[in-house]
Amino acid sequence: MKLILLFLIYFVLCSETNANELDDQVYRITSNKKYMSSCMKKSIELHHGYIKKQSIIDINKHFFVEYEIQTQKGIWLVTCDLDTGEITKEENIYNKTTTSLTK
Which 8-state DSSP code applies to residue 11? Predict the structure, then answer.
């Protein structure tokens, strides 16, 4: 019985230590994702509505974010480059029109 009690006390103390260590960690946004909020703002300004889904796309360590935006005129997929903060592609899923904004 004492052994079980000691084990439980040890387990609780170890759990608290690990939780405190996690709380003390500092989380930073990596440089390739620093335009996340800018991309979201530009996407919503381009197609007024609400974001149904957000996906991060990694193409050989070049990151993009893709937003699925529900508007009154249908659903739009907007892709934004996380290295530059620029919209690179938009696609209206409702009528399957695509506009590529890359040069």
Answer: H
Query: Helix or strand or coil: residue 38?
Result: helix
Convert the pLDDT of each residue in 34-80 to its tens digit.
788 999 999 999 999 999 999 999 888 889 999 999 998 889 999 99
Task: Quote the pTM value.
Answer: 0.64
Tell me the residue ranges of DSSP E strands in the chain: 50-59, 62-71, 74-81, 87-92, 97-100
Largest CA distance in the chain: 73
DSSP state of 87: E
Q: How far is the C-alpha of 30 from the C-alpha of 18, rounded, in Å?
A: 24
Which architecture characterizes domain 31-100 according to CATH? Roll (3.10)
Q: What are phi and psi of 61, to 5 degrees?
A: 65, 15
